[in-house]
């Protein structure tokens, strides 16, 4: 099936996996950052075509029923805060991308300290939540349930807004329904994403001159084909994370030797802080980065390296996640 370009998207967390959470246009709109690239694909785990069955000469027998219908939703979003103090609870104040991150295996923790409220998203080891998404495209409504996903790209480029891409895998709750695009309310529409400028990258206390930082969570998302499931498909499970990032930076820089760090297997805390107004600031950080590759390159005639770093578990404090995203 050819990808379907999306016109609108709603999303809401599911209290019970696979049960439609009934997102509404008035409360659960998710603003698509790169509208023309957002897309939806629908297919089956098994087509059961019976292409090699003996028959009556040339041609094919009709296949059996396809089974295990799935949907893949790819959306881009902007990293931005809520523009207001964060609060806990199901109806709490959160960034607009809250549903996308939680469906992608991140657990949200709210610090409600008056005057310095924040929300932190860290990859959960167990108990991954699921979400319902309503995707509108081409005059049809596609209802996705038991949805889980992976953060496949996080792009931070000088002078641009920070963008992320989430790939969602889900079950399709029935056939698509004819539907006009409703009037969707985007609760955080007045909050403008902060621009990547004056943004500090910290590598164990060293602050490099840098051009771009791109992150991939390396999430493994596995289908669960099950004979007892009504359609033979019980949804998707998150089975692993292996987050890495690439930092394009100037070389040489006094006081920083990435080849020595690679050779020694040095572990170091790292962070990227994107400044903005309170409740629209974003910090991406880890507690034990390790250089895994130091390829040299050229950009506009200038020497650079693309430092490749794995975000590891912190052996000094096992309570620390490999990385986390902090909105404050």
Report on the architecture of this protein.
The protein has an 18-stranded antiparallel sheet that branches. The chain has a two-stranded antiparallel sheet with strand order 13-14. By secondary structure, the protein is mainly beta. It has 2 helices and 20 strands. It has one domain. The protein is globular and about 75 Å long.
Keywords for this structure?
328 residues, 18-stranded antiparallel sheet, two-stranded antiparallel sheet
Briefly characterize the structure:
With 328 residues, this protein is mainly beta. The chain is built from two helices and 20 strands.
Beta fraction? 35-45%
User: Roughly what percent helix?
Assistant: under 10%
Structural class: mainly beta
- Mean pLDDT figure: 92
Distance between the termini: 42 Å
How do the strands and helices of this protein lay out in sequence?
Elements: E1 4-5, E2 8-13, E3 39-46, E4 67-78, H1 98-103, E5 106-111, E6 118-123, E7 131-137, E8 140-157, E9 163-172, E10 177-178, E11 200-203, E12 210-216, E13 220-225, E14 233-240, E15 244-250, H2 258-264, E16 267-274, E17 282-293, E18 296-299, E19 302-311, E20 324-327
Antiparallel strand pairs: 1-3, 2-7, 3-4, 4-9, 5-6, 6-20, 7-8, 8-9, 8-10, 8-12, 11-16, 12-15, 13-14, 15-19, 16-17, 17-19, 17-20, 18-19
């Amino acid at each position: 099936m050819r990808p379907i370009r999306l016109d609108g998207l709603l999303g809401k967390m599911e209290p019970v996996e696979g049960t439609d959470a009934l997102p509404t246009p008035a409360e659960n709109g998710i603003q698509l950052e790169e509208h023309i690239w957002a897309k939806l694909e629908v297919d089956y785990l098994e087509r059961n075509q019976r292409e090699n069955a003996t028959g009556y000469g040339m041609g094919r027998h009709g296949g059996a029923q396809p089974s295990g219908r799935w949907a893949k939703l790819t959306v881009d979003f902007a990293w931005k805060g809520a523009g207001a103090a964060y609060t806990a609870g199901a109806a709490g104040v959160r960034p607009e991308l809250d549903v996308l991150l939680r469906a992608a295996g991140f657990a949200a923790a709210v610090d409600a300290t008056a005057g310095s409220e924040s929300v932190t998203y860290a990859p959960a080891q167990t108990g991954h939540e699921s979400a319902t998404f309503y995707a509108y495209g081409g005059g049809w409504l596609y209802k996705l349930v038991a949805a889980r996903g992976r953060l496949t790209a996080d792009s931070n480029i000088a002078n641009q807004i920070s963008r992320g891409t989430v790939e969602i895998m889900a079950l399709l709750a029935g056939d698509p329904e004819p539907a006009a695009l409703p009037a969707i309310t985007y609760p955080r529409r007045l909050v403008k994403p902060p621009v990547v400028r004056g943004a500090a990258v910290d590598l164990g206390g060293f602050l490099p001159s840098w051009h771009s930082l791109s992150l991939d969570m390396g999430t493994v998302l596995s289908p669960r084909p099950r004979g007892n499931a009504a359609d033979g498909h019980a949804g998707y499970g998150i089975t692993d994370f292996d987050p890495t990032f690439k930092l394009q930076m100037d070389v040489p820089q006094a006081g920083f030797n990435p080849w020595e760090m690679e050779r020694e297997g040095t572990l170091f805390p790292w962070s990227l802080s994107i400044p903005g107004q309170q409740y629209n600031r974003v910090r991406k950080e880890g507690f034990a980065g390790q250089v895994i590759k130091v390829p040299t390159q050229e950009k506009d005639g200038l020497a650079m390296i693309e430092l490749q770093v794995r975000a590891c578990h912190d052996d000094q404090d096992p309570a620390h996640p490999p990385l986390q995203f902090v909105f404050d």
